[in-house]
Design brief:
The protein is an alpha+beta fold and 469 residues long. The protein has six helices and 26 strands.
Length: 469
């Protein structure tokens, strides 16, 4: 009997030792909620990203540019036909005129074919994107059902409250009055109404060489240098330069006598803080330009031979990501444009967050360099071929044909007013104006056109009378 009792206890003791609990505990959790469909969210994100990459401002601009170009060509054709009807002599003149008109009709037909093709592509793209967006919307509605804590709904409600609060503050009787904006510049000459010229047309000492560059005068020259002129030529790959060439007078520039000669920024070209692109200006004895390989403005002091740089806002396009363009080509490395007027130095650029529209900032004369006030416009930079400042107003040009450029747009920073119908035409000596800058010293517009230096006289209107300075 005793043996019978002892054996089970021994066996129990042995089994208990073998089944002792381990240090790890594994629990099984069963949720009553459905698992979040991350694959559907990824699909929706990919679809939205695809839409943003497919629908670009460039594609919309292509259609607008074709329509604008066709409109211009039809107007020109109408004028040519009117001239033929009026002056046809039934002989050689009439035959040549008919040949010209025939060529114009052929080119117009090509533009119409391209316009039709682009319109069909745009229609197909719009329909395809509309369906994709509808699919994304349906996916997002389904995904919102997983927001059991209603985070998204609360965010939407907060956004509506913030919008209503902003409207209340802006429209309320006790709203804070916005302080008046400082004057961007003062123009004693009245309204800019036209230009004449060209007054000067020269290739200088390097006639036919260096397609890209800039030239002009210092609006705030040092004493004794009031008549000096300067020239920058992009000597490396039509993109880079590392010196500025100085001339003691306009006549010296025309005949090619450079005194005092070159002032070098760096021995190598290109190098850090050397010149990139043709949009260069001089102000108060310093050269302002787009720094090499950076979204920044460089200021090179010609006396001390030192360079200061100013980084432009995050997202600024550079290295030919936001150039000046027309229908047939873009001008490389024209992302950052510098300009001078009576009030100082300005910079024109574009950023990714502004969807390629022109942004204007004042460059303050300070140590260190810094940006002053900034303004945003609604004109797309790639629809513009050049910009310049005159009396505190920004002007933009566009390509019409090989003989004419149009100043079609203006923006007044003081009032915030934009004008898309300026309608002032520049008679060109070469097909492309690669840099353009206004000189407040003599109210001249300096253009660098396919190796040629050209200037135009600016006409202002004051008290109802037109006069020049």
């Amino acid at each position: 009997m005793k043996l019978y009792v002892i054996l089970p206890l021994w066996a129990l003791f042995t089994v208990t030792q073998q089944d002792a609990p381990s240090d790890n505990c594994v629990c099984e959790f069963i949720s009553s909620e459905k698992s979040f469909p991350y694959d559907k969210l990824k699909t929706a994100q990919d679809s939205a990203s695809s839409c943003m990459q497919t629908i670009t401002p460039q594609k919309a601009f292509a259609l607008d540019s074709l329509l604008l170009g066709l409109n211009r060509r039809l107007s020109q054709l109408e004028q040519d036909v009117a001239v033929l009807e009026k002056e046809d002599d039934g002989k050689l003149f009439g035959a040549l005129s008919l040949h010209v008109i025939e060529n114009e009709l052929s080119e117009i037909q090509q533009m119409i074919d391209k316009l039709n093709s682009t319109a069909r592509e745009s229609k197909h793209l719009s329909e395809d994107m509309a369906q994709k967006l509808e699919d994304v919307k349906e996916e997002m509605v389904e995904l919102e059902k997983f927001d059991t804590m209603q985070v998204v709904k609360r965010q939407q409600a907060n956004q509506r409250l913030k919008r209503d609060l902003d409207q209340c503050m802006n429209n309320g009787a006790d709203a804070t009055i916005k302080p008046p904006e400082p004057m961007a510049g003062a123009c004693p000459y009245g309204q800019f109404i036209n230009i004449t010229g060209p007054r000067v047309h020269t290739g200088g000492e390097y006639a036919g060489s260096y397609k890209y560059g800039a030239w002009g005068r210092d609006p705030k020259p040092e004493p004794g240098k009031e008549s000096w002129h300067w020239r920058v030529m992009l000597t490396s790959s039509n993109r880079y330069a590392h010196y500025v060439r100085l001339y003691s007078s306009l006549s010296s520039l025309i005949v090619g006598i450079s005194v005092p000669g070159n002032v070098q920024i760096h021995p190598s070209n290109p190098a850090t803080n050397t010149i990139q692109g043709p949009n260069v200006v001089m102000y108060a004895g310093a050269l302002y330009y787009n720094c090499y390989n950076k979204a920044a403005v460089c200021r090179f002091n010609l006396t001390s031979k030192t360079v200061a740089s100013l980084d432009l806002p995050k997202g600024t396009r550079y290295n030919s990501k936001g150039d000046f363009c027309h229908l047939e080509e873009c001008y490389p490395f024209t992302d950052v444009d510098l300009a001078t007027d009576e009030s100082g130095v300005w910079v024109v650029y574009t950023t990714t967050q502004d969807f390629g529209n022109l942004v204007l900032s004042k460059v303050e004369e300070s140590e260190p360099l810094k940006l002053g006030k900034t303004w945003w416009t609604s004109v797309y930079k790639r629809s513009v071929t050049n910009t310049f400042m005159a009396c505190g107003v920004l002007y933009a040009t566009r390509y019409v044909d090989q003989n004419r450029e149009e100043i079609f747009y203006s923006f007044d920073p003081t009032t915030g007013k934009e004008n898309f119908n300026v309608g002032i035409y520049i008679n060109k000596v070469m097909p492309n104006i690669l840099s353009l800058n206004y000189s407040p010293v003599d109210q001249m517009l300096h253009a660098y056109c396919d190796t040629q230096m050209v200037s135009y006289k600016v006409l202002f209107q004051s008290m109802g009378n037109t006069f020049t300075y």
